[in-house]
């Protein structure tokens, strides 16, 4: 069975002109011709075209593609292995580029003055702005939201690194309390909760005890927060919520 140049162009998503060019330079010469002299492509030709398009997508020049495909010692499986490795590496690069672009776009929206590289360095795989649209919808009209935007707009990489370090240290502190068997309403746990509240007030917006308890409830009421917090230790989100509530009662009762 064989196919015309138009059919092959449709299969492969290339132009007829491209196939004519590949024929002219000897890169893909169709195996047959019709009685009228028209090009006819076999299954083997289609296999070769697929290899060509793989390498072209990876940025190989046509001359180099021809050398690779015409190597008499080349094993077809070796081509597939090479292409798989190259494609996998490219996918990883593109994923990182896409993440960097997303973070750059969101950083502009939030006014975070960090380059993508700096954001990766500070936050790692966690994107601090991933829920920005939802946050704006839920709290965009609040004083806390406006205050947070005003403060963070001028933050530098060093500021964000300090804030992240403080958060990490608090997480380790809560985990240590849990592992030591400290109740969530113990003095030590409530002190950690108070430092958590003060950190929010210092770095983002004025966080009173009522707002702090609302945050604590969100830690267990929204599975996204729970999942993220509990990565440090299962049950940490609930422990923090309980400590925050106990601390609020301590200061407002």
Give the SSE map.
Elements: E1 3-4, H1 5-12, H2 16-24, E2 32-33, E3 39-41, H3 43-57, H4 62-69, H5 76-110, H6 116-123, H7 132-139, H8 143-152, H9 157-179, H10 187-203, H11 209-221, H12 223-229, H13 236-252
Structure description:
α9 runs antiparallel to α10. The radius of gyration is 30 Å and the shape is rod-shaped. With about 250 residues, it is mainly alpha-helical. It has helices at about 5-10, 15-25, 45-55, 60-70, 75-110, 115-125, 130-140, 145-150, 155-180, 185-205, 210-220, 225-230, 235-250, and strands spanning about 5, 30-35, 40. It is built from 13 helices and 3 strands. The model is unreliable at about 120-140 (pLDDT under 50). The protein has a 3-stranded antiparallel beta sheet.
Give me a quick take on this structure.
With 253 residues, this protein is mostly helical. The chain contains 13 helices and three strands, in the order βααββααααααααααα. The longest helix is centred in the middle third of the chain and has 35 residues.
What is the CA-atom radius of gyration, in angstroms? 30 Å
The biggest sheet amounts to: 3 strands, antiparallel
Mean pLDDT across the residues is 78
User: In terms of structural class, how would the helical and strand content be classed?
Assistant: mainly alpha
Please report which band the strand proportion falls in: under 5%, 5-15%, 15-25%, 25-35%, 35-45% or over 45%. under 5%
Morphology:
rod-shaped
- Overall strand count: 3
Number of helices: 13
Distance between the termini: 86 Å
User: What are the secondary-structure elements, in order, as H or E?
Assistant: EHHEEHHHHHHHHHHH
């Amino acid at each position: 069975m064989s196919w015309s140049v138009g059919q092959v162009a449709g299969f492969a998503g290339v132009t007829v002109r491209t196939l004519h060019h590949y024929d002219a330079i000897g890169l893909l010469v169709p195996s047959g011709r019709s009685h009228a002299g028209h090009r006819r492509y076999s299954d083997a030709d289609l296999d070769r075209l697929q290899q060509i398009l793989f390498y072209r997508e990876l940025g190989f020049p046509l001359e180099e593609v021809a050398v690779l495909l015409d190597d008499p010692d080349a094993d077809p499986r070796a081509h597939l292995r090479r292409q798989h490795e190259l494609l996998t590496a490219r996918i990883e690069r593109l994923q990182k580029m896409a993440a960097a672009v997303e973070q750059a776009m969101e950083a502009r929206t939030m006014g975070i003055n960090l380059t993508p590289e700096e954001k990766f360095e500070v936050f790692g795989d966690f994107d601090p702005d991933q829920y920005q649209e939802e946050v704006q919808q839920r709290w965009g009209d609040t004083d806390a939201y406006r205050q947070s935007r005003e403060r963070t707009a001028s933050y530098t990489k060093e500021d964000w690194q300090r804030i992240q370090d403080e958060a990490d240290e608090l997480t380790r502190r809560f985990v240590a309390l849990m592992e030591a068997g400290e109740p969530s309403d113990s003095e030590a746990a409530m002190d950690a909760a108070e430092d958590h509240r003060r950190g929010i007030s210092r770095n983002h917006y004025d966080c009173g005890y009522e707002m702090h308890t609302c945050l604590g409830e969100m830690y267990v009421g929204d599975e996204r927060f729970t999942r993220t917090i509990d990565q440090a230790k299962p049950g940490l989100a609930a422990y923090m919520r309980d400590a925050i509530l106990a601390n609020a009662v301590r200061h407002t009762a």
